[in-house]
Amino acid sequence: MSTLVEAPQPLDAEYFRIRLLAWFDQYGRTHLPWQQDRSPYRVWVSEIMLQQTQVATVIGYFERFMQRFPDVEALAAAEQDEVLHLWTGLGYYARARNLHRAAQCVVHEHGGRFPVESVEALSALPGIGRSTAGAIIAQATDERAPILDGNVKRVLTRLHGVTGWPGRPEVERRLWALAEHYTPHWRCADFTQAMMDMGATLCTRRRPSCLLCPFEADCVAHARGEEQRFPESRPKKEKPVRQTIMLMLCDADGRVLLEQRPSSGLWGGLWGLPQFDDQKALEAWLLDEEPGSEVEGQWQCFTHVFTHFRLEITPVRAHLHRRGDDGALAGRRWYDPDQPDSIGLAAPVKALLESLSSSTLL
């Protein structure tokens, strides 16, 4: 485990800002969709989508989301199912649920206006932390608000040789102090975007473009030839493995039975296939819930990786020799893979349904 050592003193703030903004004016990204017609709502949606997700992936999702929900009122009035449907494939679905909840808070508690007067007020909304609040305020209002997302952490840890995993409180405090030191009172939107662009396009995780960096001569990690050391990784912990069986029960019309997941927890609020711990539990459930069903076989097991564990999924196909009851219990529905509905689906479930749609067994 690394020992936390005092990093070199910060660079002169004015020197840092001038060099960074000069680089941004020449090479920075200024044509991203959320940079056009900039508003707190559009910036907020983009910032939530960009958490744990690359810009290239987000662009299409953002444009589709804005087309369907052009303002916070439209998003607040939507059904959660539709929000999750438009989020399908982006992962980390708690972001979408929090986005929907926050929109309702903005409409019902703030009269449709985002509370961008302070980081504290904005971060009181679901799903908005200190750094995200800072990014929204800086980019939507051009007011001063430091940020510390993954890109900025990488730039600052390399520039100053800050050791230790950034998730450790003492390391995070050091990085926030640096972010505060460098953040100016002018051109705040450009400075914030420039910091993120530096990490995303130059100071990348692998193979950083140090020779093109405006701080090549100042960077501690580069001087030591230790760019890949920073930021230091979270102490490794073996991911536990869990197993589940997913039931693909098709009725006489080729429709598949889906269940809605609980609103919180794994795949919260999404629609998925019924899940079981073992084959015996699956067969008992079929006997109770859908008598007359017949198990046809097991598909190849595959693994879906989450942040904290690995899920081994075994798909089992079964057939119901009649049309499924459309008046089924609440929280269930029969889904036609050939005519997909606008509902939120977990990524592995979506993939299985697409396989069923093209299956000659239907």
TrEMBL record:
The keyword Transcription regulation does not apply. GO terms for biological process: base-excision repair; mismatch repair. Residues 49-201 form the HhH-GPD domain. Gene3D superfamilies: Helix-hairpin-Helix base-excision DNA repair enzymes (C-terminal), Hypothetical protein, domain 2, Nucleoside Triphosphate Pyrophosphohydrolase. It is an enzyme of class 3 (hydrolase). Pfam families: HhH-GPD, NUDIX_4. One of its GO terms (molecular function) is oxidized purine DNA binding. The keyword DNA damage applies. Signal peptide: none annotated. Keywords: 4Fe-4S, DNA damage, DNA repair, Glycosidase, Hydrolase, Iron, Iron-sulfur, Metal-binding. It comes from the Bacteria. SUPFAM superfamilies: DNA-glycosylase (SSF48150), Nudix (SSF55811). Adenine glycosylase active on G-A mispairs. MutY also corrects error-prone DNA synthesis past GO lesions which are due to the oxidatively damaged form of guanine: 7,8-dihydro-8-oxoguanine (8-oxo-dGTP). This is Adenine DNA glycosylase. The lineage of its organism: Bacteria, Pseudomonadati, Pseudomonadota, Gammaproteobacteria, Oceanospirillales.
